[in-house]
Amino acid sequence: MTTLIESEEHKALRSAVSALGNRYGRDYLTRTLAEGKPLTELWSEAGKLGYLGVNLPEEHGGGGGGITELSIVLEELGAAGSPLLMLVVSPAICGTVIARFGTDAQKRDWLPGLADGTKLMAFGITEPDAGSNSHRITTTARRDGADWLLTGRKVFISGVDMADAVLIVGRTEDARTGRLKPCLFIVPTDAPGFQKRPIDMELKAAEKQFELILDDVRLPADALVGDEDAGLLQLFAGLNPERIMTAAFAIGMGRYALGRAIEYARDRTVWKTPIGAHQAIAHPLAQAHIDLELARLMMQKAARLYDAGDDIGAGEAANMAKYAAGEACVKAVDQAVHTLGGNGLTREYGLASLITAARVARIAPVSREMILNYVSHQSLGLPKSY
Q1: 174 Cβ partners below 8 Å, 6+ apart?
Q2: Are 63 and 56 in contact (CB under 8 A)?
Q3: Are 64 and 33 in contact (CB under 8 A)?
């Protein structure tokens, strides 16, 4: 069997998660958003069924799988209209980093809760003045006896109001060179000096965005994740899954929008035949389907490379997957809305809100332009302009 063909286990997982997602569906998400609440019921049930921690080690309550399996979970929930954005953050980024580099105590303290959904961890890397340049991060940690003192600011941090802690990317001073190097810290959201401020977003989502202010937040020595001298390696061990899972998020959303459009095009009759019989309607929908399928293939390649331990190969494929999925999602949503015409902008059909949501996959966690930079430099060997 080639890796292009899903195993029976993966097909069964896809089917089971799809059934869960369809029991909740888009109506659940829309209703919960209107009430200003998080998607607690779906998150909790997905955790009890073992889907949230399918990528985490079995000895710590997970499913023993990898990002391959977790991407299936997010894609199918998205295709059902109820994606869980925090899957990208809590089990995929934070869970992966702790499972790979955390101490035994950190694994015991966090992984079982991340796996069953009773604990949630956010991820803090973006800063107001750093943008996509992680080398300009100014959040710094300095030693104070046995403790660390963490100071800085973060922006666009998802789900902090629901999180027990945030995995913060900071920098420490290298004793030999005096230069700053990246490090990761587990910061409880109730720590003194930790402040969160909601960012007023035009995009309506169950997961709120926050600015964080860290004012000499005192952390014990064991808040540091992994080796102080291997922070960059550990950081990218979390960023590759983030890109793969963002691709899954986008593909699921694109599939949902396309599904609604296909349904409408089959039934809607204006002249003698359903509008889906006309090539001007059918061909763009077929192209959108092809683009989504191609993006999924690259996502599956990236996930398998990552799960096989090939971080370098996974980095290239994960960036390509995220790019392809973001583009495919935006085009699928746009074509779906256009297929429905005026109905595509009504609350009844629930597609108009996806126009804004689809842009997220082009912008976050890294813009498509930065991905093109990565591919031109890393894959093609072209010189940098910056």
Answers
A1: 180, 181
A2: yes
A3: no
The pLDDT tens digits of the residues spanning 234-259 come to 888 889 999 999 999 999 999 999 99
**Range with top average pLDDT, 128-142, 158-172, 173-187:** 158-172
Q: In whole angstroms, give the CA distance from residue 166 to residue 158.
A: 10
- 309 Cβ partners below 8 Å, 6+ apart? none
Mean pLDDT over the full length of the chain: 94
What token pair was written down for 168? Answer: 């913060």
> In angstroms, rounded to a whole number, what is the distance separating the alpha carbons of residues 29 and 170?
34
- Distance in angstroms between the alpha carbons of the first and the last residue of the chain: 44
d(CA 4, CA 144): 52
CA distance 76 to 19: 9
Neighbours of 233 (CB within 10 A): 14
* Residue 232 or 292, more confident: 292
Nearest to 42 by CA among 65, 23, 67, 64: 23
Instruction: Give the whole-angstrom CA distance, residue 249 versus residue 246.
Output: 5
Q: What is the separation of C-alpha 191 from the centre of its chain, rounded to a whole number of angstroms? A: 25
> Higher model confidence: residue 324 or residue 130?
324
Residues 284/291, Cβ–Cβ less than 8 Å = no
Nearest-angstrom CA–CA distance, 382 and 234: 27
Q: How far is CA 130 from CA 15, 89, 173, in A?
A: 41, 20, 18
Is it true that the peptide bond before 284 is cis, omega within 30 degrees of 0?
A: no
CB 35, CB 103: distance < 8 Å: no
